[in-house]
Amino acid sequence: MAEKFDNLEEHLEKFIENIRQLGIIVSDFQPSSQAGLNQKLNLMISGLQDIEKCRQQLHEINVPLEVFEYIDQGRNPQLYTKECLERALARNEQVKGKIDTMTVRDSPRVTEIPLQ
Amino acid sequence: MTEMFSTLFGQNEAQGPPGSSSLGFGPGKPPPPLPQNQASMTGQMPPQLGDEGPALRKPGAMNEPFYLLRELPVGNELTGNTNLITHYNLEHAYNKFCGKKVKEKLSNFLPELPGMIDCPGAQEGSSLRSLIDKPPVCGNSFSPLTGALLTGFRLHTGPLPEQYRLMHIQPPKKKSKHKHKHHRQQDPLPQETPSDTDPKKKKKKRDDDPDRKKKKKDKKKKKNRHSPDHPGLAGSQPNSNSLR
């Protein structure tokens, strides 16, 4: 499972690095850079092919939509995990409190109720 | 007779109560006549049914001590009374995310990514939400560019226009102020040198220099205004030669 993510991560990093170098070539273009530009463009297409192959291995993985909101706002997605855990713990404590108040242990009233 | 009555108990039960007509069981409808074979079988059925309960009744109604009192829900061993984080072995994850301080920015999660990634994606039109709302066209295969297609990528020489230059520039990394504070605290103690070498006073001098320059310039301007050689004063002040 982790290998699939590592594989995709590696391909994405290479792709992004290739795009970055392409941007540097284009920022101050010279006629001698044309061959390198063509090579980078074909590398970009092969990178997209590799990412497409990785997609088939990860089609069962579900990502919550709320994580996308964090990323779109420029926030760390680990904050979403942190908030989920904190909310789960708070809710767990709340329910435990309700159970503790509702349970009647060794109460004299229970023994006094006559069963007909 | 009693055997027939018990076998028909399930049908007659629905017909007995007066409100059962709404269920489609007419109060006046006679029970359907059973063939003799089934009748003989039903004669043998009751003792067998007595062991299992009346089979003609609904399964949920079998355990009804009182009318309409259904079975209580089966108790679940896992309730909110237990610590669910330890139950699902999430202690490590909890300590990792909630024990330590998680940094706010996206660049702290992806430090190797180039560009300004902390900005909201909606500003540049590159948000993930737009990708979900308007998914791109998929299914086409990726084929490498041929020579004829690459002719479209022949660019003009020279630098990019200014509006497109900022795309690959990374934001400057801010140095933490605490480090400077430590240096400031450490430096003056061991050195004990004259005031010129003190970093605080050096910085003060640097800060004062532009202010000093401005003040000097202002002073020079004032001096020049009041001096007789200043060209601006030739028109304003009366010429001593003309008066003579």
UniProtKB/TrEMBL annotation, chain A:
Keywords on record: Activator, Nucleus, Transcription, Transcription regulation
GO molecular function term, any single one: transcription coregulator activity
Database matches in Pfam families: Med10 (PF09748)
Main location: nucleus
Subcellular location: Nucleus
One GO BP: regulation of transcription by RNA polymerase II
Biological role stated in the UniProt entry: Component of the Mediator complex, a coactivator involved in the regulated transcription of nearly all RNA polymerase II-dependent genes. Mediator functions as a bridge to convey information from gene-specific regulatory proteins to the basal RNA polymerase II transcription machinery. Mediator is recruited to promoters by direct interactions with regulatory proteins and serves as a scaffold for the assembly of a functional preinitiation complex with RNA polymerase II and the general transcription factors.
Family as reported in the entry's similarity comment: Belongs to the Mediator complex subunit 10 family.
Protein name according to UniProt: Mediator of RNA polymerase II transcription subunit 10
From TrEMBL, chain B:
Region span, Disordered: 1-58, 171-244
Ranges annotated as biased composition (Basic residues): 171-184, 213-225
A Gene Ontology molecular function term of the record: transcription coregulator activity
GO BP, sorted A to Z: positive regulation of transcription by RNA polymerase II
Superkingdom per UniProt: Eukaryota
Compartments (UniProt record): Nucleus
Similarity annotation: Belongs to the Mediator complex subunit 19 family.
The protein's role, per its UniProt record: Component of the Mediator complex, a coactivator involved in the regulated transcription of nearly all RNA polymerase II-dependent genes. Mediator functions as a bridge to convey information from gene-specific regulatory proteins to the basal RNA polymerase II transcription machinery. Mediator is recruited to promoters by direct interactions with regulatory proteins and serves as a scaffold for the assembly of a functional preinitiation complex with RNA polymerase II and the general transcription factors.
Name of the protein in its database record: Mediator of RNA polymerase II transcription subunit 19
Organism name: Champsocephalus esox
